[in-house]
């Protein structure tokens, strides 16, 4: 039976990392996968996470099963973090959060929850979106489509076209939105635009599904959940898939959560049983280590303050790199205007290169980006910035 299987091409993002790892060039730069790196090019364990891990080691007395809900303290703390501690829906017990293996796991569970609720539902992605979105939701049994989002001419948002497309949708549709730091384009709606989108969702009755993988990396931990708060005001139902990979730098521990806002406390409780039943058939129950660490951090004022400062440092460094990159590109004599990089936020932006130019960057300079010319700004540093800019200038002029 298995002989019928054919090899599949590498993942468009993880494949870049594999190619980079094999390149012997000492000047190589990996601008592919979205992992934060510090000025020395490392992805260190956050000191707040290390402290909590030490405490967990002392405290933990058993590794017996926790059950489908996982670490309940983590689930409660994440609900507060992503909806806001003063969320009316939280006080009405209309929100249930269940930890998942990473944000990817949350998205896959979200797809299955939607398919269970309505097998004919269609999910709509921004054009463009994270490459894995378009794989996860069909794998979860849903049909999909796209709505206009990024304008490569202005490097901004196609807001009117987006609203027109979303205005055609209704109760059989789910719309996937990026809460902040849009992956791959770095462009987010502003506050009044979020409010308009949320009002439209309330009027048309489509289900908002919000992917929040970068909370803290755009405007700050307390501001980056703006979209979620606004949708929670306007819509009776909402799904959030959140990730702790980036803001706790716990990439390999696979920590994420699915949160569901329902029309009543009873309905939220019912939906949680659906989630448990779906995950039981998949991975049985979620892993405990990462959420147990975050549970400790978010229930300790000093560790929470330390972690908040660490997230602020990562955000500030990325913003500094964006500014530095714009200045160095302009100073290098490149004619094209790259000032948009400073108006965008988070790890990612598009360089606006052709696939040929992306290949040249790779082959001639060992600079690795995703084929769409998405770069991870957080992989740049003072030591590689000039090399990167000279490579960029060369392929733009070549
Ligand atoms: C990315 O877009 O690079 C990250 O979200 C990591 C991944 O798994 O693709």
TrEMBL record:
Matching entries from PROSITE patterns are given as:
AA_TRANSFER_CLASS_1 (PS00105)
Keywords noted in UniProt: Aminotransferase, Pyridoxal phosphate, Transferase
Cofactor entry: pyridoxal 5'-phosphate
Q: Which Pfam families match?
A: Aminotran_1_2 (PF00155)
Please state every residue range assigned to the domain named Aminotransferase class I/classII large: 27-390
CDD domains, per database record: AAT_like (cd00609)
What family does this belong to? Answer: Belongs to the class-I pyridoxal-phosphate-dependent aminotransferase family.
Q: What is this protein called?
A: Aminotransferase
The organism encoding this protein is Elongatibacter sediminis
Q: What is the lineage of its organism?
A: Bacteria, Pseudomonadati, Pseudomonadota, Gammaproteobacteria, Chromatiales
């Amino acid at each position: 039976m298995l002989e019928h299987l054919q090899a599949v091409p590498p993942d468009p993002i993880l494949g870049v990392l594999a190619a980079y790892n094999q390149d012997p060039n000492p000047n190589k730069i990996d601008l592919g996968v979205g992992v934060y790196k510090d000025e020395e090019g490392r992805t260190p364990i956050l000191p707040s996470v290390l402290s909590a891990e030490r405490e967990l080691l002392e405290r933990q007395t058993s590794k017996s099963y926790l059950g489908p809900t996982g670490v309940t303290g983590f689930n409660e703390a994440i609900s507060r973090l992503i909806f806001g501690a003063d969320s009316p829906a939280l006080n009405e017990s209309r929100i249930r959060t269940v930890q998942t293996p990473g944000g990817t796991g949350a998205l896959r569970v979200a797809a299955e929850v939607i398919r269970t609720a309505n097998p004919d539902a269609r999910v709509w992605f921004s054009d463009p979106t994270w490459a894995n979105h378009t794989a996860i939701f069909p794998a979860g049994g849903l049909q999909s489509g796209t709505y206009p989002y990024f304008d490569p001419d202005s490097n901004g948002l196609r807001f009117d076209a987006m609203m027109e497309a979303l205005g055609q949708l209704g109760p059989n549709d789910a719309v996937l939105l990026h809460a902040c730091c849009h992956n791959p384009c770095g462009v987010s709606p502003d506050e009044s635009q979020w409010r308009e989108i949320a009002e439209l969702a309330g009027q048309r009755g489509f289900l908002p599904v919000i992917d929040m993988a970068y909370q803290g990396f755009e405007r700050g931990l307390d501001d980056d959940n703006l979209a979620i708060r606004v949708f929670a005001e306007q819509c009776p139902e909402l799904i959030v898939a959140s990730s702790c990979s980036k803001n706790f730098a716990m990439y390999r521990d696979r920590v994420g959560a699915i949160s569901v806002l329902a029309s009543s406390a009873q309905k939220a409780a019912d939906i949680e049983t659906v989630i448990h039943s779906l995950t039981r058939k998949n991975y049985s129950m979620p892993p405990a280590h990462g959420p147990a660490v975050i549970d400790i951090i978010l229930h300790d004022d000093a560790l929470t303050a330390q972690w908040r400062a660490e997230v602020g440092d990562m955000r500030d460094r990325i913003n500094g790199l964006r500014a530095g990159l714009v200045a160095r590109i302009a100073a290098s004599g490149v004619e094209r205007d790259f000032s948009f990089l400073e108006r965008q936020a988070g790890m990612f932006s598009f360089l606006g290169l052709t696939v040929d130019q992306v290949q040249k960057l790779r082959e001639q300079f060992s600079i690795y980006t995703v084929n769409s010319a998405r770069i991870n700004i957080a992989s740049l540093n003072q030591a590689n910035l000039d090399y990167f800019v000279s490579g960029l200038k060369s392929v733009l002029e070549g």
